[in-house]
Amino acid sequence: MSIRLSANLLIFMVEVYNKSKRIAKNTFLLYMRMVIVMVITIYTVRVVIDTLGLEDYGVYNVVAGVIILLNCLNRVLSSATQRFYSYSIGINDVNYTRSVFSISINIYIIISIIVIVLGETIGLWFVNNQLVIPLDRLVAANWVYQFSIFSFISTIICVPFSAMVIAHEDMNLYAVMSLIECVLKLVSALLLYIVSYDNLVLYGCFLFMAHFIVFVLYGIVCYRKYQECSYQKIHDKNLFGEMLSFSGWTLFGSIAGVANQQGNTILVNIFFGPIVNAARAVSLQISSALDTFCSSFILAVQPPMIKSYAEGDMDYLMKLFYFSNKFIFYCMLVICLPCISEMETILNLWLVSYSQDMVAFSKLTLIYTMIVALHNPVTIIMRATGNVKRYFVSVESFTLLSMPLTLLFFYLDYPAISTFIIMIIVFSLAHIIRLIILKNTIDLFSIKKYFISFVLPALMVTFVTFVAIFLLRESIKPGWLRLLLIGFVSTLLIAIQFVLFGLSSDGRCMIKNIKK
Q: Is the pTM of this model over 0.85?
């Protein structure tokens, strides 16, 4: 009996080690991809602003804002589809996975048709009658709008393929495809220096071509690499209904997020014009880069969390949950605190010119993005359970309050910056709602433990690091040297405090496994 118990314990330890090793490998690959993607993206924004100018850049962002937020929506839909992939892989059912793939193709074709119908009716009317666009740029804006719709369709149809890559934890392939997409977007911007035509129209056209090429590449690679990627007619109405419901409510959640971003962008355009929109667009690019940074770890930890739930291993699921919250927060804190402190220096090094609106918007955007990032571990578990209707309806209905509140404050003559303050408050309260729903769904989760083991230490680490940064700012002149010094000191302080106060015993064991 003791020998059998020891053997089972050894097998369990090997499985945990292998899971941690796979997470570590995927995290490394995704972070390498993230660093390269962020560098290319940051330079691409500089090129686009230089070639389009602030006014056209503002017009582009308000008309084709769906493209700017496309990556967020794409990841959300990919996560919804990947939940079914990971679950079927967890129970080792190839036929079920093939059925999921085929049905997901059908669902996203339906979504694409709905997008085209709404986009060419209500959306087209709104662009031409409600947005503040200079008359001489209205024709170009309409071309950009059409290209943005078809870029959106290319990305939506690509979701079943990209989700399959993630579900198989084939992160080297995912990293390569992400880099190809990023390079194509950079080439699209650089071509504006060469081709002689309306740059705004050309940029919309080139981005559509980039998205379409990525879709074709994903389709070819997945068809050849994964046996599950074989489309067939499926008559399983129960599975279709389950996936349609799951994808629909997940889509509702993602649309609510996109509506908050793009809806507030439209309100800023209506009340303050395209120049202020350009400042907001720069801050959203910073948010997008930070979101890419966060998603690198999320993509690595998401499949094992879903598979752990499918296997009924709730203890390991909760360990991953608490560890992922801490890892996300402290990694983002390392970036956000120095950036908030030295935003003027960063914008001066990054852009040809910048405004004070860009500085204020960017600082608040970093705080907002940190708060939003913390919902990822909760959302992964809720998707794993499949009980997403109550979750997304409760949470996203609340977050949508940011738009009417922004409209109210703008009517009361509050400045454009108030939209960011409102979003920070609303999304902070929404996170509490997420935790309550998670507690009602997973018995092992404790809100008290969450606050004691994560929130309180996180606040302490943030305060101590903030004080250190403040002292450095007061004693050193502004410039790139102060930026580097603050970045180094804050990283060192956060790392030390994370090890001393932020990690639990389970977290330390997980770190040791990753180191091995």
A: no
pLDDT-above-70 percentage for the chain: 79
Judging by beta carbons within 10 Å of its beta carbon (0-12, 13-18, 19+), is residue 70 exposed, middle or buried?
Answer: buried
Q: At what angle do helices 456-475 and 480-497 cross, to 10 degrees?
A: 150
Determine how many CB atoms are found less than 10 A away from the CB of residue 121: 10
Distance CA 467, CA 486 (A): 11
Which single residue is written with the structure tokens 């009340």? 271
**Residue 41: Cβ within 10 Å count:** 18
At 106-140, the pLDDT tens digits run 878 887 888 788 888 887 888 788 777 778 888 88
Q: State the DSSP string of 322-379.
A: HHHHHHHHHHHHHHHHHHHHTHHHHHHHHSS---HHHHHHHHHHHHHHHHHHTHHHHH
Task: State both tokens at 483.
Answer: 């930026």
Contact 160, 104 (CB under 8 A): yes
Token duo for residue 47: 């090129």
Which residues touch 425 (CB under 8 Å, ≥6 apart)?
A: none
- In this structure, how many other beta carbons lie within 10 angstroms of the beta carbon of residue 506? 16
The DSSP code for 451 is I
Encode pLDDT of 410-458 as tens digits.
888 888 889 889 989 999 999 999 999 988 888 888 888 888 888 888 8
Between CA 431 and CA 476 the distance in angstroms is: 37
Q: Which residue has the tokens 């369709």?
A: 153
Q: How far apart are CA 326 and CA 499, in angstroms?
A: 11
CB 63 within 8 A of CB 266: no
CA distances from 194 to 184, 190, 197, 206 (A): 15, 7, 9, 13
Length of the chain: 516
- Rounded Cα distance between 148 and 188, Å, is 14
What pLDDT is attached to residue 4?
Answer: 45
**Euclidean distance between CA atoms 462 and 490, whole angstroms:** 10
217 CB-near residues (< 8 Å, 6+ apart): 177, 180
- pLDDT at residue 325 above 60? yes
Contact of 226 with 164, CB cutoff 8 Å:
yes
Highest mean pLDDT among 53-67, 183-197, 232-246: 183-197
